[in-house]
TrEMBL record, chains A, B:
Entry's EC annotation: 2.10.1.1
The keyword ATP-binding is annotated on this UniProt entry: no
Gene Ontology MF, one: molybdopterin molybdotransferase activity
Reaction catalysis annotation: adenylyl-molybdopterin + molybdate = Mo-molybdopterin + AMP + H(+)
Database matches in PANTHER family: GEPHYRIN, MOLYBDOPTERIN BIOSYNTHESIS PROTEIN
Protein family: Belongs to the MoeA family.
GO CC terms, sorted: cytosol
GO BP terms: Mo-molybdopterin cofactor biosynthetic process
Cofactor: Mg(2+)
Name under which the protein is recorded: Molybdopterin molybdenumtransferase
Role of this protein: Catalyzes the insertion of molybdate into adenylated molybdopterin with the concomitant release of AMP.
Keywords for this protein: Magnesium, Metal-binding, Molybdenum, Molybdenum cofactor biosynthesis, Transferase
Pathway as given in its UniProt record: Cofactor biosynthesis; molybdopterin biosynthesis
């Protein structure tokens, strides 16, 4: 195990993580509890749609041959032998010279082969009860939705790995998935390091600040489909640290820490990694912020050492933890969705590493334009509240200029809601 | 109360709903349970940030006057009188000719007025213990983050009504909000109507279909911050219907029904509205799909009668129920976020009403382009699974053509995740 620092690219770091990403176990949950989960199997049509010939309109089900010669001037009169509401299984046959009143979505009765809309009948002007005049010649099959016309039994409707939202819920219900196969939610232990940290409920003390990374990370974990488990703040005692880390790994699927990974005097996670003799995946990434982001495997579990800087911690989660959580829950394509956008302002800060800047994109004159959010300088997290993307600025040169095209990684926060 | 149908515009329908929208009660929840809720009060800084003068680097805290004349060739030697880690409240003073080792984020000790980075000292080459050589002249205040430099106590950080995500969690934790004031979640009763409907767990029967709208709506409600309460399917019996509706209104804040609102023979909600003598807000909207969407007030509660057609039910929720749920939870701007996009295909279907087409937008060559999803014709809901927006097509003429600019309402589904 080497603890010196070889910076690797973001893409290489992601590859090293995903190489060990296994899918979670599958469990079956009731339909009403499946929202937000990821499908462990594709959804297929379990029956033809419709599964009975169906009327698309309110009207009369008739035999096309009986309407020969019908016209506005000379309606053909048919005997009304019944009415079929939605949900009825018609228990009669439409014979020669007969018609059945039928509602939208109702099953076509035996004998009938087409549906004439109310508007083309004498429905509202009938002189004799139980008789309807048809004002138009019909063809067999006209206004009948045939069995399987919309979907065939077995048709693939939604791919495995898709997150269940309104559309998926509707399909699952339609096809009788009262129980839904989904991937288990990963349980993620979250631990902050640093003896300078107070809990949110503690009063401030000179020199100390409150832990914010754990709560931010918990929200990111939840929105990425994990269950966050908060383990408070770790003081800078290596023996205690090793013990806490081992306990957390027993109780959860993964540990995310923040802080303690740089090269300072009191970098506890570096010491923990050494004492546990972890399999280090990386401890330096060619990126800003968050170059000290570390990841390791211990037995079959991941330990992420995110930066203690809130902005870097946020970015580290999005670039490295999110793809893993997606893969564990069966999402075929991992990582944040990419798009191109035009830079709305100059970003002239030179950097030897690629930069991932918390930003906001919007459409201006039909074009995607992206702006950094808040003061770029500030270490505080207030600008995360406005970010809907990370802007990727390539290294070298003197930064990028207004009007340049940049790649943008779309965040799921601050979108439509 | 009039039950004839006067079509009103979508905007007018939204106005009539919002005219009655009151904010929910405020409750305080623990920070860890506040994620996804909407803030009932703005978040303000409860202290200066930093609240003590702080070092932005690892280095030595010194007195600028002591560094006069220091250079790479002629470092000034200072006595190291202590070390300050993050979180320490320094209990000593840096006097004339003295220095204190200091870590990033640690408090500047009394007496010192600047910080020199390790790189500009003899840190790694010290010949004498407890002595450090400073290789550069410093100015007072250099590399010191002053009290309140990032945020002042009382600064507005996040507006009321904002949904709590990772950035908001970080800020709440930073400023000691162990309990967070949020709006109560509205409880939404959901009821499907139609004797053709089966429950998802029931086997298919001829002429019948399974209820999918309730499950779709439940997902929409949850993602809009409500608590869905499913009440199953209502059969077409008016007495029972009235009783069920009254029970649901006692147990929830609002009722959403699907189906039973058109002009057919068995439109149960029309009958329920009549018997309860509701205050009808509207029962016809100039839009496709979902022109029969209805809304009413009964005592202080809303009843929404969404269309039984799944696509129309989906759109009806997004246009009319979502803004109300947002307003009840204090969101200042209600409704789906709008943007302009270029149409990627011809949509030549003429319509006398504005159309809201389930669609997907993406960026192509830097421009936002929008495409309808799935077969436009299909009444099935399979295309909702791919939609990330509703495309608004104005009425009249012969539809819109590829390349035309259209307004797009962004949905919070199928975004980054």
């Amino acid at each position: 195990m080497r603890f010196h620092r070889d910076p690797i690219s973001v893409a290489e770091a992601q590859r090293r993580i995903l190489a060990f990403a296994g899918k979670n176990k599958v469990e079956h949950v009731p339909l009403t509890e499946s929202e937000g989960r990821r499908l462990a199997e594709p959804i297929r049509a379990t029956n033809d749609v419709p599964h009975f010939p169906k009327s698309p309109y309110d009207g009369f089900a008739v035999r096309a041959e009986d309407t020969a010669g019908a016209s506005l001037e000379k309606p053909v009169e048919l005997e009304v032998v019944g009415a079929i509401a939605c949900g009825d299984a018609p228990d009669f046959t439409v014979g020669k010279g007969q018609a059945a009143r039928i509602m939208t979505g109702a099953a076509i009765p035996e004998g009938a082969d087409c549906v004439i809309m109310f508007e083309m009948t004498t429905e509202n002007e009938a002189r004799v009860e139980k008789v309807v005049g048809v004002k138009k010649e019909m063809k067999a099959g006209e206004n009948v939705i045939e069995v399987g016309e919309e979907k065939k039994s077995g048709d693939l409707l939604v791919e495995a790995g898709k997150r269940i939202g309104p559309g998926e819920m509707a399909i699952l219900a339609t096809f009788g998935y009262a129980e839904v196969p989904v991937y288990q939610l990963p349980r993620i232990g979250i631990l902050a390091t640093g003896s300078e940290l107070l809990m949110p409920e503690e009063p401030l003390r000179y020199g100390k600040i409150r832990n914010s990374n754990s709560y931010m990370t918990a929200s990111q974990v939840r929105q990425a489909g994990g269950i966050p488990v908060l383990y408070g703040n770790l003081q800078d005692d290596p023996d205690e640290a090793v013990e806490r880390v081992l306990t957390i790994l027993e109780e959860t699927d993964m540990l995310i820490t923040s802080g303690g990974v740089s090269v300072g005097d009191f970098d506890i996670m570096v010491e923990v990694f050494k004492r546990l003799d972890v399999d280090l995946l990386f401890n330096k990434i060619a990126m800003r912020p968050g170059s000290v982001t570390s990841a390791a495997r211990y037995n079959d579990a991941f330990i992420f050492g995110l930066s203690g800087n809130p902005g870097a911690c946020f970015v580290g989660f999005e670039l490295f933890v999110r793809p893993l959580l997606q893969a564990m829950q069966g999402k075929p394509e991992t990582g944040l969705k990419e798009m191109e956008a035009v830079l709305g302002v100059d970003m002239k800060k030179p950097s030897s590493f690629p930069r991932y800047v918390r930003s906001s994109w919007k459409i201006e004159d039909g074009k995607a334009v992206v702006y950094p959010v808040g003061q770029d300088k500030s270490g505080v997290v207030t600008n995360i509240t406005d970010a809907n993307c990370l802007m990727c600025i390539p290294p070298g040169g003197s930064g990028v200029a207004k009007g340049d095209t940049v790649t943008v990684l779309m965040l799921p926060y601050n979108v439509g809601e």
